[in-house]
Amino acid sequence: MIFKPLSPPVRRLIACAGVVVFLCVYVALVSNIAGHLPDNKLVELLYYGLAGILWGIPIIPIISWSENYQTKNRR
Q1: What is the mean pLDDT of the chain?
Q2: Which of 19, 28, 67, 68 is the most buried (most CB within 10 A)?
């Protein structure tokens, strides 16, 4: 079976839905883990600082996939 490549708007829509779902799950996990942290402001600062930065790492492949829609020209 030969599948037709997805059009750019469809890829972006799928990526957008994936990002929203991922962020909902990520925020729930970060909030749940934060409830188990020791009552120390420095620990909380480091935890939320890292959590605020690290969410972008899994998002990069989703965004790259959604924008890499040009197919290679076959000879």
Answers
A1: 89
A2: 19
Residue 10: what residue type?
A: V
Is 66 within 8 Å of 11 (Cβ atoms)?
A: yes
pLDDT of residue 69: 53
Angle at CA 32, nearest 5°, toward 44 and 26? 95
Q: List pLDDT tens digits, range 17-38.
A: 999 999 999 999 999 999 999 9
Encoding tokens for residue 33?
């883990």
Residue type, 48: Y
b/e burial code for range 27-52 (CB count within 10 A of at least 16 → b):
eeebeeeeeeeeeeeeeeeeeeeebe
Give the number of other CB atoms < 10 A from CB of residue 13: 13
